[in-house]
Design goal:
Number of helices: 8
Order of helices and strands: EHEHEHEHEHEHHHE
Number of domains: 2
Shape: globular
Radius of gyration: 18 Å
């Protein structure tokens, strides 16, 4: 198997790739907040929700990327709109503004906590400032976002809504040299269940766990992982990323975004505290 078999370029998103569902709450009067909306899974999720007619608040620190997301929604003729809100998730004031803008745009019912980052190092070599940053973005910020969004969701006419958290196969097990990421994702699973426990059935919490996805974050990891483990980039792709999977193909951001669409929709009403594990066999076929 050679690396030439893998196209490590993020695929272009087209309207045909998007899951579009009929749902009484999917319309311009309903708002969804999506973090990490400037690229990768977050960008695809923002566009997918706009394709379902929702008013989307796309939040990210990358303002140029947010404008690309707005353009992409327009290019796919999405009936909904994407409102870019530059947001530093480590700044509580920015997070508060993000949620307030969402509430101002309509009935805030949905939140997709997608924003994430990665740093490759062993526990003994892991810089604490990087640990703090990863946990702030991937665990503290989703907690604060949920804390601020829940009252608005409960204040809608029927209290129906959902908070979806971007987890990972690393929310289910651990591998080497990603200790902060793994800690954050395991914590996010706990937050998901806590939301479900307090949501009284109508306000749901769920998570989405996938393996490796063709995103800029994943592509940037290959070189770092190769250096940390002392192996080639080819070995990272073939052995580390796809070695344990039974489906020998990386997911696309749009395929992950469609899971959020399904989870938010009426079809996901029994998905509460649970996890959409779409991992190609990573966690269930261990050798």
């Amino acid at each position: 198997m050679s690396t030439e078999e893998f196209d490590l370029t993020e695929p272009a998103l087209t309207a045909d790739d998007l899951l579009v569902l009929e749902d009484p709450h999917f319309g311009p009067g309903t708002t969804a907040v999506v973090t990490g909306a400037a690229s990768g899974i977050g960008q695809a999720t923002a566009v997918a929700l706009a394709a379902n007619g929702l008013t989307v608040v796309g939040a990210d620190i990358d303002e140029d990327g947010l404008e690309e997301t707005v353009d992409l929604a327009d290019e796919t003729d999405a009936p909904g709109t994407v409102h870019p809100v530059p947001t530093d998730l480590t700044d509580d004031g920015d997070v508060e503004t993000m949620i307030e803008v969402g509430a101002d745009q309509g009935d805030l019912r949905y939140v997709a906590n997608v924003a994430g980052m990665q740093h490759i190092a062993s526990i003994s070599e892991f810089p604490m400032e990087k640990y703090d940053l990863l946990l702030d973005i991937m665990l503290r910020a989703p907690f604060l976002t949920a804390k601020l969004a829940i009252p608005y969701i409960r204040a809608t006419d029927d209290g129906v809504g959902a908070i979806g958290n971007m987890s990972s196969v690393h929310g289910h097990y651990a591998t080497q040299d990603k200790p902060a990421y793994i800690t954050a994702k395991h914590g996010l699973e706990g937050l998901t269940r806590s939301i479900a426990a307090e949501g009284e059935g109508t306000l749901r919490g769920f998570s989405v766990s996938v393996g490796y996805v063709l995103t800029p974050l994943m592509v940037n990891q290959i070189e770092d992982t190769a250096e940390e483990r002392g192996i080639s980039e080819r070995e990272v792709v073939e052995d580390v990323m796809l070695g344990q999977a039974r489906t020998k193909e990386m997911m696309t951001p749009t395929e992950v975004a469609n899971l959020f669409v399904f989870g938010f929709s009426r079809h996901g009403k029994h998905l509460n505290g649970g996890d959409l594990l779409w991992d190609g066999g990573y966690t269930t076929t261990y050798e």
